[in-house]
Write a structure and sequence with these properties.
Helix content is about 65%, strand content about 5%. By secondary structure, it is mainly alpha-helical. Among the domains are: about 45 residues, no CATH class; about 30 residues. Strands 1-2 form a two-stranded antiparallel ribbon. A hairpin with a 2-residue loop joins strand 1 and strand 2. The relative contact order is 0.11.
């Protein structure tokens, strides 16, 4: 018997959380070899070993990708973004039984392509100006990039309006909103991750590693010492794990930053060399990554026995990054837990045995990406002569000459250039 969808949705606002439609539970994707090897253990310890083995495997792959370079890291971020988007959109399909909505699955992915085209086009315009200048076909795309992006989005918007079907209106608008919120969570945040990477790989590695460290150490401290529940949204989270994870992460971030700050490969901004068609990380390290001597606070002098200590200024910033990763970053996980509870699911997917979906592992990273971007723009980044020069090279010759004359006149007035140099 056909159910009137409009009547069912008309009661949606009156339903409690317990009335949300059930979602089929995810299947167990644990490899058979692990199941057999751990068959004699209790469920608690079995999960411990599965999570541990898969965590080490993921960390190993992550280090391999770091070794392969910046471009591979960007591809990794893009791949994670697409997978997270897929997991969240799929939950919407299942919860609201929206598989049969006309065009909607295609429109969801179309909007993803549109938003990625906009953000990554902006990145190309900012960081690959010299490369674009040499190719006429790309000049057109960059010059009218925002108009093209808006036209593409407008096409999808019109397609959505044309796809509206009687008795499905409310459900279609639910899913339209679901798609756009998902885009906000995944695409914009992953774009910020890549922006951070261009500032120097250290701004990518320290925040991400701090979140990973906090996740692991909080789990270990909670597993062995956890007694006091932390938050109702995540019953397994404990104060012991939260506090242990905090101190462990701050120490890890401080030490990890010390080792990374010694290498140009990690501290130099990632730039594209149009001559070699490769990303390069070569520069004279900024003051953030040059060893300095600091006075130890009197209170600590009695404990440590040191009056001064040599360290990199970035290590002080790493404390701020690690503190955020430990105290605020977990709220991304709490938010994800609330989302999963609202829709009666244990994990976003079953992609990684013992861990759930990709989104389950990166729910805290998105808050971290935004914080790092805001932190850099607020406290670190100053005028960038290299980026300004790239923008000047894009100008027409007469525009470049005008800038040159204006700058020369300004320098003469400041007394930096001699008046005799006027021409």
């Amino acid at each position: 018997q056909e159910v009137d969808l409009e009547e069912r949705l008309g009661e949606l606002d009156l339903r409690s959380d317990s009335d949300v439609p059930d979602v089929p539970p995810p299947t167990d994707s644990t490899p058979e070899i692990l199941k057999r090897a751990l068959s004699g253990l209790s469920a608690r310890w079995k999960n411990w070993w599965i999570r541990g083995i898969l965590t080490l495997a993921m960390i190993s792959v992550f280090f391999l990708i770091i070794y392969l370079g910046s471009f591979m890291l960007m591809l990794l971020v893009l791949s994670i973004q697409v997978k997270c988007y897929h997991e969240i959109i799929t939950i919407g399909y299942r919860v609201y039984h929206s598989y049969d909505l006309p065009w909607f699955r295609s429109l969801s992915w179309y909007f993803l392509l549109c938003v990625n085209y906009f953000f990554y086009g902006e990145t190309v315009a900012d960081y690959f100006a010299t490369f674009v200048q040499r190719r006429e076909q790309l000049q057109f795309l960059i010059r009218y990039h925002r108009f093209i992006s808006f036209a593409l989005y407008l096409t999808g918007f019109c397609m959505f309006v044309l796809s509206l079907v009687k008795k499905h209106y409310r459900l279609q608008f639910y899913m339209f909103a679901w798609t756009h919120v998902t885009l906000l969570i995944t695409v914009t945040q992953s774009h910020l991750v890549i922006q951070n990477l261009f500032e120097g790989m250290i701004w990518f590695l320290v925040p991400i590693s701090s979140v990973i460290c906090n996740d692991i150490t909080a789990y270990i401290f909670g597993f062995f010492f956890g007694r006091t529940p932390l938050i109702k949204l995540s019953p397994k989270k404990t104060w012991e794990g939260f506090i242990g994870g905090f101190f462990s992460t701050v120490v890890f971030g401080f030490v990890f930053s010390y080792f990374l700050a010694q290498h140009q490969y990690f501290v130099c901004p990632v730039e594209y060399n149009s001559e070699t068609n490769r990303f390069v990380t070569e520069c004279e390290p900024s003051e953030l990554f040059q060893m300095k001597k600091y006075s130890v606070p009197p209170l600590l002098q009695a404990v440590l026995g040191w009056e001064t200590v040599d360290m990199y200024p970035f290590q002080m910033h790493s404390i701020a990054l690690s503190t955020f990763a430990s105290l605020i970053g977990p709220f991304g996980g709490f938010f994800a837990s609330g989302f999963k509870r609202a829709f009666k699911i244990k994990d976003f997917a079953d992609t990684i045995p013992g861990h759930g979906g990709i989104m389950d592992r990166f729910d805290c990273q998105y808050l971290m990406a935004t914080f790092v971007h805001v932190y850099i723009t607020s406290f670190i980044r100053g005028p960038n002569p290299s980026k300004l020069l790239k923008q000047l090279l894009i100008l027409q010759p007469e525009q470049q000459l005008s800038v040159y004359k204006t700058l020369k006149s300004h320098l003469v007035e400041k007394g930096i250039l001699q008046p005799s140099l006027r021409g």
